[in-house]
Amino acid sequence: MKERIHAFDYAAEITKALPEGILLNTNGDKFNSMVIGWGHLGVIWGMPTFTVYVRQSRYTKKQLDKTGEFTISVPLAGKLSQEVFQVCGTQSGRDVDKEKAACLTLADAEQIHTPGIQEVPLTLECKVLYRQDQVLADIPDAVRQRYYSRGTDAGDHHTAYIGQIVSAYIIRGA
Ligand SMILES: Cc1cc2nc3c(=O)[nH]c(=O)nc-3n(C[C@H](O)[C@H](O)[C@H](O)COP(=O)(O)O)c2cc1C
Fold first, then answer.
1. Is the CB–ligand 1 distance for residue 53 below 6 Å?
2. Interval between CA 45 and ligand 1 midpoint (Å)
3. 64, 69, 108, 149: which has the fewest C-beta neighbours closer than 10 Å?
4. Confidence band (pLDDT; 50, 70, 90) for 174?
5. Within 10 A of 50 (CB to CB), how many other CB atoms are there?
6. Could you tell me which CATH class the domain 2-134+161-171 is placed in?
7. Would the CB of 55 count as within 6 Å of ligand 1?
């Protein structure tokens, strides 16, 4: 069962959960889910939105660019399970089927083709309104050094995707 909500009524829950990790789900060649720690609720052009930041190297980026839609899944009681966090936050959909590896139970979406996840119940269905690549030269030096200069992250900038929230609910039960 889906309990319909107003996303902004859950702004505190979503914002507090973010630094610990929530899920960004896509469904291009297959369903895939990745942990994100950055993002925000907001409004642009009079529409409620959720914005995510995705590095160029992510399998998720390929899927997002193909479908132009995503779902956000937020744990309501506590954090993501260790299994979901490990699989979705460190492994790539290029190499693994995360639905199987993290034992996720998918729930069909209402307005888009990207499912939500029963085990991670607060769900935002989003259609991409706008995307923008970060310009590394415009990022403050200290931030660029920390996030875009080391190891495999070197030069691996983020693209911001602003998603219009077209449906919001909590998945209850099976
Ligand atoms: C707590 C946490 C927060 C993360 N936040 C982001 C993020 O906001 N953007 C991003 O591109 N990667 C982020 N990552 C890294 C991805 O989750 C990770 O690289 C994932 O394996 C990518 O999966 P994919 O290749 O299937 O897209 C985060 C990882 C963790 C553990």
1. yes
2. 28
3. 108
4. low
5. 23
6. mainly beta
7. yes
List residues bridging with 5 in a β-sheet.
none
Checking 35-42 for CB contacts under 8 A at 24+ apart, the result is 35/80, 35/85, 35/88, 35/89, 38/158, 39/72, 40/15, 41/7, 41/8, 41/11, 41/14, 41/15
Nearest CA to ligand 1 atom 5: 36
Residue ranges per structural domain of the chain: 2-134+161-171
Ligand 1 centre distance from Cα of residue 34 (Å): 6
Q: Which residues partner with 49 through β-bridges?
A: 42, 164
Quick: pLDDT tens for 58-90.
999 999 999 999 999 999 988 999 999 999 999
Q: Is 107 in the pocket of ligand 1 (CB under 6 A)?
A: no
Give the pairing type, strands 69-74 and 106-107.
Answer: unpaired
93 lines ligand 1 (CB under 6 A): yes
Ligand 1: centre distance to CA 24 (Å): 9
Split at pLDDT 50, 70, 90, the class of 163 is very high
CB 102 within 8 A of CB 31: no
Note if the pTM is more than 0.85: yes
- Locate 157 and state its tokens: 């900038």
